[in-house]
């Protein structure tokens, strides 16, 4: 009798504990078969070396808008990785993607992102002061975790931060697994692209001191410059990833620290541990979402398991980050762990997150500001009562209430 194919994403014991299937599949099956919300079956990779190997292999595609590729969501278009491109297909992979990365990476150097640290600190202080003034308890998502990344990415791009509710609504809709209909996705995508197009046109006509203005002007003798469609795709991608993933991670990091409060107290005693705490929080994220797909373009093997051309594999970055073969005692939170920064929370290979330095700066600033402002910070609710966001490909919390 064949074993039933499990539904994916897997259920979790609670918001802070990973699904039991992560460890089971790592130990027994380099390529596990799982059923996506769409009903399509894909291969799932959960081992560190297997995940990193697939992500760094340029032969395989993350674009599922192709014949035979699995669909992710219940919408007719199959979800964010299958969604048909609108003039920006060339930047998704191959030479076009490499050209786009070369142009974009000039604006995201470590030096440039670190130069934003004082301004991000000002934003964090302002939000934290306002939250404290409002009094305990407070929802960290509404008070800090959502507005801070939105303010940062809007300042970076030169977009008005008062539009944060629009960004949040559009982003959540586009990342649907089961929550939204195709009509709602189409409406959100059209509105988001129209907003980005208008912003690009305004920055091209009247450049300012912001990243988008810089991107409209960047040119290179070999790479040329970004087209209007490429700039639209860039703005949508940065506004979506620049606030959605960082906002979620702020909440997940604080929940990890406050659910076992000795972790927070260790940080209070030694604030110099902030960078290490951030890396461990990224590594131990149990709410990382569905992962990243690869469409297999030719017959291959994963740890000796044959994978045929035309297959779709998903790599679970956060399951890989708990691989005991890479991280001894992987479920232990250790801000002094020597290799924690070798996690793959930001991906690997040609699609490695271009904004990872900015995300790290935001997380470090936010955490240090909590420690400085609120040494008495505690969770209001028990870990088993924290509300996970359901039906969205990016994992996170609906809210996170704290007291002090």
Automatic annotation (TrEMBL):
The record ties this protein, via InterPro entries, to: Cyt_P450, Cyt_P450_B, Cyt_P450_CS, Cyt_P450_sf
* Any GO MF annotation of the entry: oxidoreductase activity, acting on paired donors, with incorporation or reduction of molecular oxygen
Tell me which cofactor or cofactors this protein depends on.
heme
Name the CDD domains on file: Cyp158A-like (cd11031)
Q: Where are the transmembrane segments?
A: none
In this chain, the stretch annotated as Disordered covers: 67-96
**PROSITE patterns xref list:** CYTOCHROME_P450 (PS00086)
Q: Which Gene3D superfamilies match?
A: Cytochrome P450
UniProt lists compositionally biased (Polar residues) regions at 72-85
Q: Which UniProt keywords apply?
A: Heme, Iron, Metal-binding, Monooxygenase, Oxidoreductase
Coiled coil feature spans: none
Q: Which family does it belong to?
A: Belongs to the cytochrome P450 family.
The record, for PANTHER family, names: CYTOCHROME P450 BJ-1, P450, PUTATIVE (EUROFUNG)-RELATED
Q: What is this protein called?
A: Cytochrome P450
- The UniProt gene name for this protein comes to npm3
